[in-house]
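Onboarding guide, step 5: your first structure request.
Type a short instruction followed by the sequence, for example:

Predict the 3D structure of this protein.
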Amino acid sequence: MKVFKKGLMYLVILFALIMVSTAVAKIQYHDFVVQATPVKRLCKTRSTITVNGQYPGPTLEVNDGDTLVISVVNRARYNVTIHWHGIRQVRTGWADGPEFITQCPIQPGGIYTYRFTIEGQEGTLWWHAHSSWLRATVYGALIIYPRQGSTYPFAEPKRETPILLGEWWNANPIDVVNEATRTGGAPNISDAYTINGQPGDLYSCSSSETIIVPIDTGETNLLRVINAALNQELFFAVASHELIVVGADASYLKPFTTSVIMLGPGQTTDVLITGDQPPGRYYMAAQPYQSAQGAPFDNTTTTAILDYISAPCPFRGTPSTPVMPTLPAFNDTATVTAFTQNLRSPDNVSVPTDIDESLFFTVGLGLFNCPPNLSSDQCQGPNGTRFASSMNNMSFVLPSTYSILQAYHQGIPGVFTTDFPAVPPVAFDYTGNVSQSLWQPVPGTKVYELEYGSNVQIVLQDTSIVSGENHPIHLHGYNFYVIAVGFGNFDPATHTKKFNLVDPPMRNTVGVPVNGWAVIRFLADNPGVWIMHCHLDVHITWGLAMAFLVKDGVGGLQSLESPPEDLPPC
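The system replies with C-alpha cells like these:
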C-alpha cells in the first residue's frame, strides 16, 4: 500500500510539473492567408493585399518562451515572405523571412510554415511582409507578454492598446515601386497616414471609421505604438496628456515623461497614459518627421480619438471636435534629438567591451549614371541619373536564384561574395560638400563574415550625398546597444569619450541622425545570414543594405538548425 501511495504521489508530482511546464511555455498555431481584399479608404475602393482579409493583419499575442507555428498560404498574385520584426530567431534563421536573404519567396499558390520560439524577449514587436512593397498593407502587431508568473517592471495597466501607424496609397503600392524602378526616379508619395488602418477625421470619407481608444478617469493604460509606415518617420502625441515611455523595440527603458515621441519605420515604443484630464474626447495624432531637405513627402496628419468612458452621455453623444495635440514642425530635429537622448536601459547592462570587429559603415543616397542602353524616361533622377543608395559605397543587389542562406548552407557558388568592406573604400568629409565623383556606388551582393562569439562595434555614418537624412537602420537576428549618437563626422579621438557603456538602450532599429552618426555594439551569438538595412523601403529598394554571415560556433547549440523540408523553392 505504501508503495502504491508513493507511486501515486510521484505521478501527481509529475503531472503537476507537466502542467506547470505547459502553463509556462505554449505552442501556438496560426494560419495566415495572403490574399487580395477590397478595401475602401479616402472615398475609393481598391484591391489590397491583406492577411486573412484584415487590414492591418491579425495581432499575435504570446508569452516569452512560447513557440509560434504559422502557416502562410499565398493566394495573392505576388511572391511574398513574412518577417517577424525584432524576433531574435536564435538558430532559426530559416524563419526570419526577408526574401532572397534567408529564403526564396512563397510563390502564388505556395505554402510555407514559419516555426520559431520566443527566447528572453518581452514587449512590443510586429510582423510584416518582406517582399517588394507588400508591407504597405501586410503587417500586424506581435505582442510578447512576460512569462507566466512574471509581471511588468511597472504597475499593471488597466488596458493595453496596439497603435499601428501606417501609410496608405490610393494606387497599388507594387505599381508605385515598379514605376519608380522603371523610371529611376523617386516613387510617388503616399496619400494618407493611418492609425490601425484608418486615416481619421482630417481626411475625406474617413470620419465614420476613425479609431476610438477608450480610457476612464484615473486609470493608466499602455499604448503599444508601432511605426509600420513604409517610408516615413512619424511624430506621435495625445492631446493634453503626457506619455511615460517605458519600452522600445521589446526592451524595457528607464521611464521618462514626454509630450511627444518619434518613431522611424520599424521602431516600436511603449508608453503609459493616465486618464487625468476632464472627461471628453482627445485626438491622438501622428504626422511626419522629414529630415531630407527638398524631398517631397506626405505632409498630412492621421488621427484617432482617446475617448473617456466616464464623459457625460450628452457630451459623448454630440459631434464636438476633440482637442488636437500640438505636434513639432516636420523638420524639428532638435525634438527628435532630445527624445533620443532620454532613452536608457532601466539598469546597468553588460555592454561588449573587448571589441573583435570594429566596423565603420557609411549610409546614404547616391546616383547611378544613366546606362547607354536606357532611354531618358528611364533615367528620371537628378540630371538624368537613376536614384541609388548604399552602405560603404556598395549598393546591395538581392540574388534571384537562391537565398544567401541557402547558398551558404549548400555551398552554392556565385550567389554572393564575402568581401563587404569593413570601412569605406575612400575616406571623405561625409557630411560636408562631397565631390560628385563619389556619388555613384558599386552594385553587388556582398556579406561580411563574423566569427561566432565575436564582439562587434559598428559606427553608422550618414552622408550628405544627394541629401543627408535620418536613417532607421534595422539589424535582423539581433538586438544591440546604442552607445552613442551625434552630428557631423564621427571622430574617434573625441566621440569615444562620450560612449555610454553603463545603461545604453537596447534596440533592433536605430535612427542614424541626419548628417550624423550612431554607434552600436552586439555579441555575434546567433549563427546565420542577417540583413542590415534602412527601414525606409524606398532606400532598401535602391540598395541601402548589407548582410552579416555569422558562422556556427562549437556544437549544436551554437549552430544553425537544418533547413525545414517545406522551405520554398526558387
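Each response can be followed by summary notes, for example: Residues 1-22 have pLDDT under 50 and may be disordered.
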